[in-house]
Design goal:
By secondary structure, this protein is an alpha/beta fold. The protein is about 25% helix and about 25% strand. Helix 4 crosses helix 5 and helix 9 packs parallel to helix 10. The structure holds alpha-L-arabinofuranose (AHR).
Length: about 500
């Protein structure tokens, strides 16, 4: 082929790929509710290599992991489960480490545990991270007495046998733990209860969750499994809302089905599309639970707490199936960006969330291999999006073109925006289409700015990962594809990319 002809052909293809009708986006300077920093929370269960061999080496906390997580401003960390919360007995894991009880983690892999990481170590971890603790108490196999006494041990500053035991174990001052889960997945691994039965249990347990001086509790009821709207309806009707800060909800993105979830790295566009469609479902699920909550709590005093979310794939070949160790690709980063946009846009009701799970489990931020550590593509999304923490959400209107695959369609672009306390506007945009560059033209009535800066996270293939051999394959770069054109902000979004812009 002659060179000029080849050049013309290449140009035509390039124009063809981006010759989409531009996406119209309007961002108004009308402040919505504040985006709680706690939407950017994380979950660390005593599961697989999350705590043991992740955060904890056996006698100390890994400071490289802490430093990485401090950088993204982790606001809250949930522990000890998950399913494990309802088999966890806090007394097994306090006092001198060599005298702690040995127990079997029957929830995850039947491993024998020395309980060297317990209440004191977890709260030390939270203090190193500068984050709020969020403890899930045991309802499934515990008692109100066990929950009541744990709270006294944690939060009572006066003289009592339990507060003195805490002092004897090295902590004088109470920790003032505030976020408290009353069980976990009580419809499943937390006791297989009906919503009516759990509502009674919640009312009984919460009666004994006392506010010690200086430590008012924020109780979180064990809420629905994804689209189980009946669970929400029954709880909102029967639990004591005056004793309730939040209702949890769990929803995982699955690219296959529960028995065959699919590989974290070996997948084609069919599984890519399926994962994106499943991830976008979060918007509908949150909206429907929020609508039920609105009926019983129109003032939105009770938060929807999405304290387990993320993509769940098959484990990496050769690893313990009970350890839920999976790699993390660009696809997962796009899921994180999209989900956080959904939460930002529901900031009136979603006031806390926790990605599952921080280190070495499910959609992790950090993977470790002995003393090596890497940051996943998902980590970088939390780094880019931290600008939204505690900022005022801005009202956006977006008409997205579809991303079509095999006759099915989903919106290609999603977005959220906020204004921080310094006045800067932050816009996070995701293009899910794996082959099309999309031009966004945003009208910004009432928003004055002169500078547009930004960062982008993308890569050549949707299943690109960071590995111990190539830890920097997927990482953010400076973004040059946004400009002010008259009254419009014009953004050229490359295929499968997340862009976070700052306007000031
Ligand atoms: O995050 C893994 C598990 O998923 C949790 O233990 C449980 O709550 C959920 O089913």
């Amino acid at each position: 082929m002659k060179k000029p002809f080849l050049l013309l052909l290449m140009l035509t293809v390039a124009v063809g790929l981006s010759a989409q009708r531009p996406v119209s986006l309007t961002i108004r300077d009308t402040s919505g509710p504040a985006i709680s920093r706690n939407i950017y929370g994380h979950f660390s269960e005593d599961l697989g290599r999350c705590i043991y061999d992740g955060f904890w080496t056996g006698d100390h906390i890994r400071m490289d992991v802490v430093a990485a997580l401090k950088k993204i401003k982790v606001p809250v960390l949930r522990w000890p489960g998950g399913c494990y919360a309802d088999q966890y007995h806090w007394r097994d894991a306090i006092g001198p480490r060599d005298q702690r009880k040995r127990t079997v983690n029957t929830s995850w892999g039947m491993v024998s545990e020395d309980n060297s990481f317990g209440t004191h170590e977890y709260l030390e971890l939270c203090s190193l991270l500068g984050c709020q603790p969020y403890i899930a108490g045991n309802v499934g196999s515990g008692t109100p007495e066990e929950m009541e006494s744990w709270l006294e041990y944690l939060n009572y500053g006066g003289k009592s046998t339990l507060a003195d035991l805490r002092r004897q174990n090295g902590r004088d001052e109470p920790w003032h733990v505030s976020f408290w889960g009353v069980g976990n997945e009580s419809w499943g691994c937390g006791g297989s209860m009906s919503p009516e039965y759990y509502s009674n249990e919640y009312n009984r347990y919460s009666e004994y969750c006392k506010n010690y001086p200086g430590s008012p509790l924020k109780l979180i009821a064990s809420g629905p499994n994804s689209a189980d709207y009946n669970w929400t309806e029954v709880l909102m009707k029967h639990i004591s809302l005056n004793h309730t800060w939040g209702l949890s909800m769990h929803y995982y993105t699955i690219a296959g089905d529960w028995n065959h979830k699919g590989s974290a790295t070996q997948f084609g566009e069919d599984k890519y599309f399926k994962a994106m469609a499943a991830c976008l479902k979060m918007d509908e699920i949150v909206s429907k639970h929020a609508a039920i909550m609105d009926k019983y709590d129109p003032q939105k005093r009770v938060a929807l707490v999405v304290d387990e979310w993320g993509i769940w794939t098959d484990v990496e070949p050769g690893t313990n199936p009970g350890f839920l160790y999976q790699q993390n690709s660009l696809r997962d980063a796009l899921i994180a960006g999209t989900t956080l946009n959904i939460f930002n846009n529901h900031a009136d009701r979603v006031k806390m969330a926790a990605l599952a799970q921080t280190v070495n489990v499910l959609q992790a931020l950090v993977l470790t291999d002995k003393d090596r550590m890497l940051l996943t593509p998902t980590y970088y999304i939390f780094d880019l999006y931290k600008v939204h923490q505690d900022a005022k959400s801005l009202v956006i209107k977006l008409a997205s073109p579809d991303y079509e695959y095999d006759g099915q369609r989903i919106p290609a672009v999603n977005a959220s925006a906020s204004r921080d306390s310094s006045g800067a506007v932050h816009i996070s945009l995701v293009n899910l289409d794996p082959s099309k560059t999309i031009t966004i033209r945003a009208g910004m009535p009432g928003i004055a700015y002169t500078n547009v800066g930004g960062q982008i996270l993308t890569s050549g293939r949707f299943n690109d990962v960071n590995s111990f051999d190539q830890p920097d394959k997927v990482k953010p770069a400076v973004f040059k594809g946004a400009r002010k054109e008259g009254d419009e902000l014009v953004v050229e979004m490359p295929p499968m990319s997340v862009v976070v812009l700052e306007l000031n």
